[in-house]
Amino acid sequence: LKGYLIGRVHPSCHEHNDEIANLGEGPKLIKYVFQPHWYTPNDIPHEQFPKEVADEDISQMERADIGIVALPIGVDCGSEIGWFAGKGKPVVAIIHDWSDPVTNRHAPSRKAQWESLQRHWMVKTFLTKVIIVGDELTVDKADPILFDKVIYIPEDYNVYDQLDELVDDWKVIKPWYPRHPNV
């Protein structure tokens, strides 16, 4: 199976996107996670992107079996999340602070990632699950949309195993939202 990373393409987000995508790849089920920032031009403004950039994204989304979200997201990410949900494909946000002060590597904090998600009520509706790596955040139970979608996994647990299980389960159940008969 293939994954598609849904994350901001700005150069300042590339390292975070790579880390989140790497959590989703593994030996069993999801062999590859496509990352749009690998080929998206970062030397021109978004409004000047050639149509081929969008065409490639859509082509990769069609080939993907799961959307993996790196927070925080932008408007285009919200569109991709809605597209995955509309196609009946699972979409999972992964909240993980992989910062390492020794090597001077810094990720957005888990709380900042969570708070960025809170602002997008339709995105939250379309998410299948939110995987939070590490200690429990106390804010999740207050969210009326996400409260039953959150999974906590310990820092030393392999996120891939959780995704593997989720995609395996997804193959035998229908999407949680009703589909229009003409879609």
From TrEMBL:
<protein>
    <recommendedName>
        <fullName>Glycosyltransferase subfamily 4-like N-terminal domain-containing protein</fullName>
    </recommendedName>
</protein>
